[in-house]
Amino acid sequence: MTRRDFFGATAAAVAAATTARAQSAKRPNILFAIADDWGLHAGVYGHTWIKTPSFDRIAREGVLFTNAFTSNPKCSPCRATILTGRNTWQLKEAINHFTIFPNDFALYPAELEKAGYFVGMTGKGWGPGDYKSTGYAHNPAGKEWQKRRLTPPFTGVSAIDYATNFADFLIDRPQDKPFCFWLGSQEPHRAYQEGSGVRSGRNPADVPLPKFYPNAPQIKSDMLDYAMEVEWMDKHLGHALKKLEEIGELDNTLIVATSDHGMPFPRVKGQLYEAAFHIPFAVRWGAGMKGGRVVDDFINFRDIAPTFLEAAGLPPAITMTGKSFLDVLKSNKSGTVDATRNVTLVGKERHDLGRPNDQGYPARAIRTPEYFYVRNYEPDRWPAGNPETGYRNVDDSPTKTFLISRFDEYYKMSFGKRPPEELYDIKKDPDCVNNLAKDLNYAQVKRKLQERMEAMLKEEGDPRMNGHAEFFDTIQYTGPRKHAYDEWLKNQ
Ligand SMILES: [Ca+2]
């Protein structure tokens, strides 16, 4: 059976049963579509070198958010924040990448399941890491629908046929239940087919580069390869939307389309800069809210879980510290809806191995509409990982190889050591290349931001603020150790 036949057949099989239910359903379905390593690059955000018609449609028919932020720009910690509704320093081990997943926090998929939702996921859920040793029977994002796979050749990095797995899930669901589904595409995570973007006829001259890169054709070509993978993800999103339309559930489904953090490029993935934690975010809910809006309120990823629960008529779980933005969705307004949504915090401890004793790179930051202030607590460490072990905090890539080979100012911006404090005028300098932390004209601004950040972190129980920073050094790494510093030493 071809994919087209399959979609046709499944549509016929479920259409009759679902139409009646869609009309009478009170609780919305929830579809959470999350890309892997996709930065703020979409047509609706003004980019012409990358085509995202499905995401653009969700934004156009729903709400496009211009200020959505993850609390930690790396796969596992970001996804843990989404599932638990807690900031990254409130997640015990799950602040790190490749850890166990603690079992003492409520998760929105499990809460919805308890309340009668049919819950599932496909592709990448929480991870990478170990959720089994803490007692989870399946991925914390939901029971997996993974069996549909594509046969080569295909464009994406993964063979998982996300949209058809979603269609399977819809067939399997009981007739009397709303659903909650996590569609986790593995694109545009690396590895890419080098040069695929240029070979597809794309023009490197169309790609605008951030100021922290030199104007190099290698980097532009690499970004076009990334664009290919974003477009593959967007195509699957389009299939999922079409599926919902076919079975009459589109307008009764609260759809969120987003990513976990910025693109898998140096100085972006895993780093505390704007391009790493400022994320594409669009919400469509045909019957539930007024569409065609652009909202500038700050959305923190810990706000997603309580929003889903409130949309389902549930209170936030007691362990959730995020704040539902359902009121923003329902407000019918554009621009600034809730003026108190004007600040976000971001931080990290250890992402990948590669420093002596498996050390991390502890940092916290605060972002307001005007400024971005960063505190690097261990400035003697290498921010992207040690040189000897290959700067493991970002995937290998043509851009990474090129920047390392230059060993110049651009190399330093991506891989070099950083000062204890950084301050950026985010409106003038969204690429965060002009550090104002030592500029006396900004001394007062800096001090106020630092005080505000530390007060907020203390209130949130961050162990680093409350005299227990040593906890972060006790967190075990659960992934392969081939890039660890001790492994490197053994081979010398
Ligand atoms: Ca990721």
Structural summary, described in words:
This protein is of the alpha/beta class and 492 residues long. The protein has 2 domains: 27-336, Alkaline Phosphatase, subunit A (3-Layer(aba) Sandwich); 345-465, Arylsulfatase, C-terminal domain. Helix content is 30%, strand content 14%. It is built from 14 helices and 11 strands. It has helices spanning 3-24, 53-61, 75-84, 108-114, 162-172, 196-199, 217-246, 274-277, 304-311, 326-330, 398-406, 409-415, 443-459, 485-490; strands at 29-35, 63-69, 118-123, 179-184, 253-259, 278-284, 293-300, 344-348, 363-367, 371-376, 421-425. It has a 7-stranded mixed beta sheet with strand order 3-4-1-5-6-2-7, with helices on both faces. Strands 8-9-10-11 form a 4-stranded antiparallel beta sheet, with helices on one face. Helix 5 (162-172) links the parallel strand 3 (118-123) and strand 4 (179-184). Helix 1 crosses helix 5. The radius of gyration is 22 Å and the shape is globular. Mean pLDDT is 94; it is low at 1-7 and 16-25. The chain binds calcium ion.
Q: What would CATH call the class of the largest domain? A: Alpha Beta
Helix tally? 14
Low-confidence stretches: 1-7, 16-25
Strands, total number:
11
Bin the strand percentage: 5-15%
Largest sheet: 7 strands, mixed
The third-level CATH topology of the largest domain is Alkaline Phosphatase, subunit A
- CATH architecture name of the largest domain: 3-Layer(aba) Sandwich
Tell me, what's the shape? globular
The CATH superfamily name of the largest domain is Alkaline Phosphatase, subunit A
Overall pLDDT level = 94
User: What hetero molecules are bound to the protein chains?
Assistant: calcium ion
Over all CA atoms, what is the radius of gyration?
Answer: 22 Å
Order of helices and strands: HEHEHHEHEHHEHEEHHEEEHHEHH
Percent of residues in helices: 25-40%
Structural class: alpha/beta
Q: How are strands sequenced across the largest beta sheet?
A: 3-4-1-5-6-2-7
- The number of distinct structural domains comes to 2
The N- and C-terminal alpha carbons lie at a distance of 54 Å
